[in-house]
Amino acid sequence: MRKLGTYPVRWAGLTLAQRVEAIARAGFDSVSASGIAQLTAAQPQENLPRLAAAYGLHIDNVHLTGRETNAVWLEGPQGAAVIARYLAEMEQAVRAGVTRAVAHVTWGLSAPPLTALGVERFGTLVRRAEQLGLTLCFENSVSVPHLRAVLDSDDAACFCLDTGHWHAFAPGSDIALRYAPRIRAVHLQDNDGAHDLHLIPLDGCVPFDALAAALRGVPVLTMEAAGRVDKPLPGEDGAELSRRLAGLPGAKAGLLRTQGDRVLAYERMDFSAYLNRLHEAGTALAQRIGGDADV
User: Quick one: which of 182, 220, 286 has its CA closest to 61?
Assistant: First the structure.
């Protein structure tokens, strides 16, 4: 039976405990950790495994720390330090009882040169994940060649398909279908086709029907929407941005607008209403995808 999950959406004024309780109340089956600190926090009200257990939620995955990941592809101690951090976080995840993790192969809006050193270093993570019994999923971001290099180097490397990244950064890419058998985690989010906005799925223009075949075998449909959006887009022409976003379903529903070169979304919604819309989007996507998947 396919399940619906979400990351613990950031929301001003609400603690992690309050957000997890609301996620369970909205009908989600699972919650994923936005970072390793949520799995290791000493305080019970900040410790996601305790909170998830209290509200009957499964923890589907943890997103490992992505900053400075570009250094992995370059000579020098910084890249080795980033790999050491990934290895330590993987072990922490397993100790916390989480058996699936998501990692980036690049970070930010640019990518470093593609190198054999980087592929080798990521291979170290794959081999350690196998030893730990951890399913390590590499997420698509700005560079398809870097992702392909890592996934093609080892059949044990799994894939996390981020729908918003695919649409904004590589809409013509075949990665969704090419690596569909290796998708073990998903980040379902939406945008305008040009910017990584992390809108609720179906409020933007990601062609989810085109991704249905790739998503059909995924057991947990995890949302990675960002909550209220107030995103500046430097260099954008405000009038053109407004015209482009006006046609999106979220704008037509009165939930998405522009202000100069800024995109604003869900600003008048409370957290409960937001989660209900997020759950409804997940349910609609599950129906579009069809089929079924075992957890």
Answer: 220
